[in-house]
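Subject: Interface between my chains keeps coming out wrong

I've been trying for a while to get a sensible model of this assembly. When I model each chain on its own everything looks fine, but I need the whole thing in one frame so I can look at the contacts. Pasting all components below, labels as-is. Any help appreciated, I'm running out of ideas.
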Amino acid sequence: MRFVPRFTDGQEFPHALGKIVCVGRNYADHARELDNPVPSEPLLFIKPATCAVPLEEPIDAPFTRGEVHYETELALLIGEELSHATADEAERAIVGIGLGLDLTLRDLQTRLKEKGHPWETSKAFDGACPLSVFLALSQVPNWSALAFTLEIDGEPHQRGEGADMLFSVPTLVAEMSRHFTLQPGDVVLTGTPAGVGPLPRGAQLHFTLTGGLEVTTRVVE
Ligand code: ZN
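Reply #2:
Try treating it as a single job with all components included. I did that and got this:
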């Protein structure tokens, strides 16, 4: 089943989901917690559309293949084609913001990194990107004032703020468009703040995003 992005008012975006373009380290505190150097240019990778599932539905993942880590990230819905865009053009092409989970088979990723191999099998499996509905951009304050949170069984685990991003939203999307043409229906994940960890089976997850988005979901037993 193909994932179609939707807005909070229930309206469907007129394009099916395309690729999901992600950035590896966009918050200094998360780079430090995984012992990674803070990058001088964004470390980009892509998840295919087959990763996407609705965040509102119970989250299943390949738990038999080692630790599955959650990474809560601000998600941007792209509404116009972008190639070698300026930061202004990139900013104007964003039509919605929401939340996504960049699910990662962390043990597998660590083994692949040690061998210098690509990460795909640890990050691009089916279901590896639960995505929320999107707030229309008019509901959103400026980028640096955005904040999002994740609580697991009522305990705070992650908090991300636009002001703490190493690469701001317009700069990041413009940089992505220098490497890959972005098309309507593509989604950009903007990196995770500190606080990542294994997804606990059976747990309840509660997400909030500035502008009025709240999602409660659970992890399958
Ligand atoms: Zn991530």
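Reply #3:
Confirming on my end. The first helix runs from residue 28 to 33.
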